[in-house]
Amino acid sequence: MTNTTVVINFKQPSSSLTVDMVKDFVSVTYSSMHNDTERRMARIERTC
Question: Are 1 and 36 in contact (CB under 8 A)?
């Protein structure tokens, strides 16, 4: 996940954002961040 994605998403007019869209965006963002962290941790464990 990149910061630019977040910026672009939040620059859209709020009228086009429904609660469901926000929930989807948050869950997708969270899961991609979580997967990123797990991958990084796995890489660190391998190098040790």
Answer: yes
